[in-house]
Specification:
alpha+beta
């Protein structure tokens, strides 16, 4: 989407959201799952985010970068959005302006599952 009002992603429990515009106040209140990527070009998003259950991260992990770009490309293909076109054209310059909103408990569960998956692979390789 290209902007949301107050209480965006309130009580979000799963999925992915990309916001290519402004957000209102109280973003992520009660957000327990899923991931939101916010284009924070004015570096003010943290003032609008309810930090009670989430942490904010730069979008640097290769998987996050790929997911974000793919979602923006799909948005552009479906809508011919001039905002999405600008972001894609200026990708290297704007990527650092994106923020990943990641619920703490959801992150813990994902990281534990990944550790188990990697541990299982290591055990199989050792046998």
């Amino acid at each position: 989407v290209e902007g949301v009002g107050d209480h965006g992603c309130e009580y979000m429990t799963g999925g992915r959201v990309v916001i290519l515009g402004p957000t209102g106040r109280n973003f992520a209140a009660g957000m327990s799952g899923g991931i939101a990527y916010i284009w924070d070009r004015d570096n003010i998003f943290s003032k609008n985010c309810n930090m009670g259950m989430v942490d904010l991260f730069p979008v640097k992990e290769a998987g996050d970068v790929l997911e974000l770009k793919t979602l923006i490309e799909k948005h552009y293909q479906a809508t011919q959005s001039t905002v999405a076109a600008h972001v894609l054209k200026e990708w290297e310059a704007v990527l650092g302006q994106f923020v990943k909103v990641y619920p703490r408990d959801y992150r813990r569960v994902i990281e534990e599952a990944e550790a188990i998956r990697l541990g299982t692979k290591e055990e199989k390789a050792a046998k």
